[in-house]
Amino acid sequence: MISAESSKFPVWFIILALLSLLVSATSSSNEGQNRSQPCVDGTYEHEGRNCCLCGAGLHLKEHCTTNLQFGTCETCPKETYSIYPNNQKSCEPCTSCLQPNANLEVEEPCTPARDTRCRCKHNHYCSSDIKPCKICNPCKVCAKGIKVDCTANSDRVCNDKTEGDNKVAIIVGIIVIVVVIGLAIGLLLKRRRNRKRQHQVELTDFNAAEQSQFLRAPVVDLQPHLPDIAEVIGWRDLEVVAIRSSIPNTAIEACKINHPHSIEEATLELLKIWVEKNGREASRNLVQILQRSGKRDKAEKVMDILSRPNAV
């Protein structure tokens, strides 16, 4: 029994020894690893010692007292930051997006390890190529529609003319053209009416003046005076009187044919035809036609013949 119990003791001892060796090996490995990389962000020198730099988002409060060790590092206070490992006693102040007239707003707030990120406000753009943008400009306001909208780095492009403006312009143009044409036609018609009225007035005045100068022939029977009147007027002027009185050319020519050897007889026959056509007013009409034909002297001679005592 004693030998059996004695044989079990070395087993437990061996197990405990193995566990102790494993723990010791693990601790030695960690210590060696720590000794191989004590300052992951680099070092700085202070009083003959190399101290580890504080990481991003931290600042140095106290220097290290042992070589290749960290001193006392603290997190950057509110509204400050440090973006790189450092040994500075303070952090950088965060950028403000609230500068007057800069037209900026916060895109990402400041953190201990990162500065504030600003961006242009709505309907504003940055015209500078320098980043981050310091000042933003208002986007253009388009009264006739937007062609290309405003972006963070470019202004808005407006339409020159909208479709509605084109339609309105066309309609207005048509109305203006119609009005102008209407006014032109109205003015032309008015001028024509005025000219016609003026012509009528002038014609009336002329007729009145002409009538005042006309010889007023009495209404008498021309039969007793036909030979004398035919002699005074003559064939050529009587032919004009006949034509003005719408006597056919055939009748005029027939008078000449009937009296080929006597123009006086032809004149007398044509005068008879003319008197028959004009009837009772023949004496008055003959004098007036002679005057209108520019034969006032012959009209006066006819008047003298008509005023003789044998006139009825």
UniProtKB/TrEMBL annotation:
UniProt superkingdom: Eukaryota
Record keywords, A-Z: Apoptosis, Disulfide bond, Glycoprotein, Membrane, Repeat, Signal, Transmembrane, Transmembrane helix
Keyword Nucleotidyltransferase: no
Signal sequence residues: 1-28
GO annotations of cellular component type: CD95 death-inducing signaling complex; external side of plasma membrane; membrane raft
InterPro entries documented for this protein: DEATH-like_dom_sf, Death_dom, TNFR/NGFR_Cys_rich_reg
Molecular function in Gene Ontology: tumor necrosis factor receptor activity
A Gene Ontology BP annotation from the UniProt entry: extrinsic apoptotic signaling pathway in absence of ligand
Transmembrane segments: 168-189
A Pfam family matched in the record: Death
First and last residues of every TNFR-Cys repeat: 75-118, 119-158
Disulfide bonds: 76-91
Entry annotated with the keyword Metal-binding: no
Segments forming domain Death: 247-306
Record domain TNFR-Cys: where: 75-118, 119-158
Gene3D superfamilies found in the cross-reference section: Death Domain, Fas (1.10.533.10), Tumor Necrosis Factor Receptor, subunit A, domain 2 (2.10.50.10)
Matches recorded under PANTHER family: TUMOR NECROSIS FACTOR RECEPTOR SUPERFAMILY MEMBER 6
Name of the protein this chain belongs to: Tumor necrosis factor receptor superfamily member 23-like
Classification lineage: Eukaryota, Metazoa, Chordata, Craniata, Vertebrata
